[in-house]
Write a structure and sequence with these properties.
7-stranded mixed sheet; globular; alpha/beta; 20 strands; Rossmann fold; 3 domains
Length: 665
């Protein structure tokens, strides 16, 4: 990848300006800590293994240069300075008492309030870009000792402290891990851990345990963690969770204008988007990645695709057919592997699916060549050299980027697009089995973007496999839960089934003065999960006075990962998922006497007729309490869901008896 000449000059100027700033940061924050550590070990043989000022200075120069330049799908085989295409993003707390911060500089206010911050959101919302911005602004504003770590580099054999050591090491020195750990324990570090969801599943438990152990030993520091939604994130109970707010139309248009520096393409595209018949494309304008794909797709064909997977196909086409502007618009780079566009796409599908199975986006050269060899064997009839293909995906069709000795997908969602295409076009008789395996996986949340793409590619198969399994789960749930033992109306009973499907809810007591951050979340997590790791704590907490002691009853919700599928169906406007209105707290107030002598004693909202919260006086009020305290405002629609299941079953049976495909042959 190359930086264009103007950006190259700007980068040199920026590095020149930043050099004294880095020196100031090291002198102010790092040097005093190193001197203190050297004094402590002055009589030890280990003193020569202590990091130096020069190690940190070199690290900041190298990392600043790396992070200030971004590689996006928009610019094909060129790169841009982050500041040229960055727009301020707003993050909002997922707690009931919602707080928001717009990040355009170093977020000191957030760290003053919450020393440990977790940012979770879906693909393409800008989590990594935000972390890069925070790291760079920490340097620019001379604020603490920032360290940037890409968590995909961690494995069960490579601990976090080893990755930090590797990042800080100069070329000709190897300092001691234990001494580095002692330095960090002293505090003042801002440690950014980017991409928790990119840790290989096979290493997840060990890496998570290592990260938790590292954080617990370094409480004088601040931490950022970013991730797509993951069930395992509940183990970071002392982190305050935020999500990135969707882009407004104004910000989306601002981003589009940055891509061509207020040029003709963005002007034409924005004008097109403002037309009335373009209102159904709103969902693509709230996500920074999709905004960039929209720009690339429009630049290539002057047309706007209306399905997400078509964005990726047009981006692929644009990259494959990319004109080398340095040699004139008519010049198209030859491909080293000599494959045509559809054959190249076929290889990429197999590569994408294999990488998706491994749940990795970064590889060594030998690992990637091995995967390409497997793709070549699968794609019978195609002849190409694996090394040539690797050159193509780095240069002529830049779907990968090289980072030192590693090769990674330009964006994780690209891998997911090709994986979804493989399931749709290449998996043949294994297609249903693959989809069922994804649906029943204990970590379904991790695969939701692939299912999102697949939904639009092949809704019929999605309906007959994924949606049918989801509806069968609901049908079984309605048969097993809340039977005729209750003296409440059928409407109220059905409402409870809808509200509790795919979740568990609990009541507990806490005093009036207990703010959300004061709740013992680790204790709650331990008490609530009961070893069922697939349940995820919803951060919504709510309460209402229940007695004269000013004690409050609160409600917590754990969601099965399959609730992420419900959210996907909602986003597709699938009628089996409905939205609910919000209830104010006073509307959900319940007068129920439970053991008021023990805080955090849990009362599960179950289907037992003997449970006091299920008596006729409390049953409907508990429904309202669930609605008022659950952060999500959607649930399954009982009548539509069961009717849809009947229709799917009938359709599948009719297809089995249909002979039209062979009639007349």
């Amino acid at each position: 990848m190359m930086i264009d000449s103007n950006d190259s000059i700007a980068l040199k100027d920026m590095l020149t300006i930043t050099s004294p700033v880095i020196k100031s940061l090291v002198d102010t924050f790092v040097t005093p800590k190193l001197e203190k550590l050297r004094d402590k070990f002055s009589k030890s043989n280990e003193i020569g293994k202590i990091p130096t000022d020069e190690d940190f200075t070199e690290y900041y120069h190298r990392t600043f240069k790396k992070l200030i330049v971004v590689n996006t799908l928009v610019f094909n085989n060129s790169q841009k300075l982050l500041n040229d295409i960055f727009i301020p993003l707003t993050i909002s707390s997922t707690s009931y008492n919602k707080v928001s911060y717009e990040i355009d500089s170093f977020p000191q206010e957030i760290l003053d309030e919450y020393s440990n911050v977790l940012i979770t959101d879906t693909a393409g919302m800008g989590k990594s870009t935000l972390m890069k911005k925070i790291f760079l602004e920490a340097i620019n504003e001379v604020n603490g000792i920032p360290i940037f770590i890409e968590l995909r580099r961690l494995t069960k054999n490579k601990k976090l402290i080893q990755e930090i050591q590797e990042q800080l090491n100069s070329a000709n020195k190897n300092f001691d891990v234990d001494l580095l750990m002692e330095l960090i324990c002293g505090g003042g570090f801002i440690i950014i851990l980017d991409g928790y969801d990119e840790i290989a599943l096979s290493d997840r438990d060990q890496v998570t345990s290592d990260i938790q152990d590292f954080i617990s030993k370094n409480t004088k520091n601040s931490f950022f963690i970013t991730s797509r939604p993951e069930k395992a994130l509940t183990s970071f109970g002392n982190f305050h969770e935020f999500k990135i707010d969707p882009l407004t139309r104004k910000k989306a248009f601002e981003l589009l204008r940055k891509y061509d520096n207020q040029g003709t393409i963005s002007s034409l595209l924005i004008k097109k988007l403002q037309e009335q018949d373009m209102r159904n494309i709103e969902e693509f304008l709230i996500n920074p990645l999709l905004v960039s794909l929209l720009f690339t797709a429009f630049e290539h064909k002057q047309a706007i695709p209306f399905k997400k997977y078509l964005f990726y196909r047009q981006v692929y086409d644009a990259n494959f057919e990319n004109h080398d502007l340095t040699k004139g618009e008519s010049y198209v780079r030859d491909k080293y592997c000599k494959l045509e566009i559809d054959d190249f796409h076929r290889v990429m599908r197999h590569l994408g699916f294999n990488c998706f199975k491994l749940q990795r986006i970064e590889f060594t050269k030998d690992e990637l060549l091995k995967l390409l060899s497997e793709a070549k064997e699968f794609c019978a009839g195609l002849k190409f050299n694996e090394s040539d293909f690797l050159l193509d995906i780095l240069k002529t069709v830049p779907l990968f980027a090289q980072d030192g000795n590693y090769y990674r997908w330009s964006h994780k969602s690209l891998q997911e697009y090709f994986a979804a295409q493989f399931i749709y076009l290449d998996s043949k008789e294994k297609q249903d089995l693959i989809l069922k395996t994804l649906y029943n996986h204990f970590n379904l949340e991790k695969f939701i973007n692939v299912l999102d793409l697949y939904y639009d590619m092949d809704y019929k198969t999605f309906r007959n496999v994924i949606e049918k399994e989801f509806l069968i789960d609901f049908e079984n749930y309605t048969k097993e839960k809340y039977l005729e033992q209750y003296s409440v109306s059928e409407e109220i009973l059905i409402n409870r089934k809808e509200l509790t499907f795919l979740s568990r809810s609990f009541l507990f007591l806490a005093s009036q003065n207990s703010s959300e951050r004061q709740f013992d979340r680790n204790k709650l997590n331990k008490m609530l999960t009961d070893g069922e790791k697939f349940y995820k704590l919803n951060n919504g907490l709510n309460g209402m006075v229940i007695n004269s002691k000013d004690q409050y009853i609160h409600c917590l919700h754990y969601h099965n990962p399959k609730s992420s599928l419900a959210l996907l169906l909602l986003s597709k406007k699938n009628p089996i998922i409905k939205t609910r209105g919000n209830l104010r707290r006073r509307e959900s107030a319940i007068l129920i006497q439970i053991d008021a002598n023990e805080e955090y004693k849990l009362f599960e909202i179950d289907d037992s007729a003997d449970n006091i919260i299920n008596n006729i006086k409390n049953f409907e009020k508990i429904n309202k309490l669930i609605i008022a305290t659950c952060m999500s405002n959607y649930s399954i629609d009982n009548d539509i869901a069961l009717n849809k299941l009947r229709i799917i079953r009938e359709s599948i049976e009719n297809e089995k008896d249909n002979e039209f495909l062979i009639d007349g042959l």
